[in-house]
Design a protein that fits this description.
The protein is of the alpha/beta class. It has eleven helices and 16 strands. This is ATPase.
Amino acid sequence: MGTIKNYYAGGNTNVGFYSLFDDVLKGLDRLYIIKGGPGTGKSTFMKKIGLTMAEKGYNVEFLHCSSYNNSLDGVIFPEIHLGLVDGTAPHVVDPKYPGVVDEIINLGEFWDKEKLRANGKRIIKLTNDISENFKHAYEQFAKAKLIHDEWEEIYLEAMDFNKANEVTEELINKIFAEDIEREDRPIIRRRFFGAATPKGAVHFIENITEDIEKRYIVKGRPGSGKSTMMKKIGKCAESLGLSVEYFPCSFDPNSLDMVIIPKLSVAILDGTAPHVIDPSRPTDEVVDMFELCIDPQVEIGKAKELENIEQRYKIKMTIGTNHIKEAKRLHDELETYYIAAMDFAAIDSKREEILDEVLKYAKDFEK
């Protein structure tokens, strides 16, 4: 059985839908781009091929959908540099090298147009209502970010930046203590380990780091330098010729929540809410930036202000999440019209055809 890793390539953030698909798909020699409406079976198509390949011993990366839990946006087989991706909005993917690298699979070929047109007005209204809910969600997340900035400012006033730099340098010296041989072709990758979904914040940190030998779990408060520390460590690894996996924050993509250095089997991750990670392995090590770098009196003197900020932030995030949840409810109804119009037997046949192509490609790749 091959390993299965779970990620997100796009997220519902404070700046709207944020796509990392270009990063995630970079370096693939073969890419199937799946087109079709909601409920046409794109996710199931990819999931079944992915699970079959895993059963045959190939490593698999599932790219999850941030807007619809249990749905996939893509599947990648890193060993053979091949992937399948949902190429529809909001993460539109079009062929760059049609027929050479990229191939479009149009599941719209298998729907009954007349059945869809018979429900055209409702389909159009649902589609527009879904867009409106996402628009409102992003507006709420943007307001939450402004409140979060207030939160950070309070802790920044109590921050000992010299001490933060010292802690970062100590950690860098610890991680890169030994001479490290440069990689021939270091790869820089960016993905999300989590997302704001209809079910709230979801993450795959444990799955992604399950084979990492050393995890530095960074604790702290907003503005305590966690992201800055990770950026410096990542840049240091890059300067030494090492591959680096960056995981931006799924709320604020300009901030970092995790860095992995595969060659060293080291992860540095933000272990605070909404993705609380506590030490669970003998090799886990906590780096508490609040304890090390911030005057704790700030939480006494600013207690009421901090409580007010946290409450306002949570309210905005809850309202935004509720809009995403409503978009999911509307999407579920929209799917019913497409499901009723699809020839799934024909799609199953197409999937078997593509699976055969993928398996043949894998065998040729290994020769």
